[in-house]
Amino acid sequence: MNLTPLLRSPLSWALAAGALLVATLPAPREAEAKGKKCPDGMVSVAGKYCIDKYEASTVEIVGKNKTKAHSAYLPVDGLRVKAVSKRGKIPQAYISRDQAEDACKNAGKRLCSDEEWLGACRGKSPSTYPYGDEHKAGYCNDGGMSSFNKLYGVAGGPAPQDAYTFANLNDERLNQMKGTVAKSGAYKRCKSSYNAYDMVGNLHEWTASKTGTFRGGYYLDTHQHGDGCDYKTTAHAPRYHDYSTGFRCCK
Length: 251
Description:
The longest helix has 15 residues, at 10-24. The strands form 4 sheets. The chain has a 4-stranded mixed sheet, with no helix packed on it. A 3-stranded antiparallel sheet has the order 4-3-5. The chain is of the alpha+beta class and 251 residues long. 22% of the residues lie in helices and 15% in strands.
């Protein structure tokens, strides 16, 4: 039987075009994941949630829809601040878990859960470091110097135990020394496959855990409490802060 006349009919062409359209459309879940939009300064993690691309800096909220700059070298005690994810900024240290949570909320976001933070750090093919399973010197800001020992050490040695006061640990000079905090995104190879930068090194990052958890290590240590993405500290209360504690937000 000759089917050529049938294929030339308008109905046949419509059916053929419809079949082709259905065949080329992605599955609904795939289309939804690919179409997920994240706010500026955030990246999508497997289409499930968004995370800040960079460690958070902050601005002070001074009125309705008004903000002013805040020094990342100073605590945010007594201030109302908003989290900002932007390349080339000094990320906010000297911030507690509870203050970081408020800063995220003021930006229309929230602190990341432990699982969300780990998922973004380990990447699409989960690895120990954002860039792979083996540590590579210089990829992240994790080989800095101890500014605390330099300021409070005795004759260039380690600082005595009684030097570790809350005031000293929040000394604004600590992160202004060479070999300490770097600007966000400065270490171009320190990014996960989801394009989240500086999740290991630079600053510790608070998560949403109510008991107080920060992850990823900082510029002086990314191994003491686990390697790379697995670094985890739970020894401090959610109101604690020092020169090493920072954060980023999820949404």
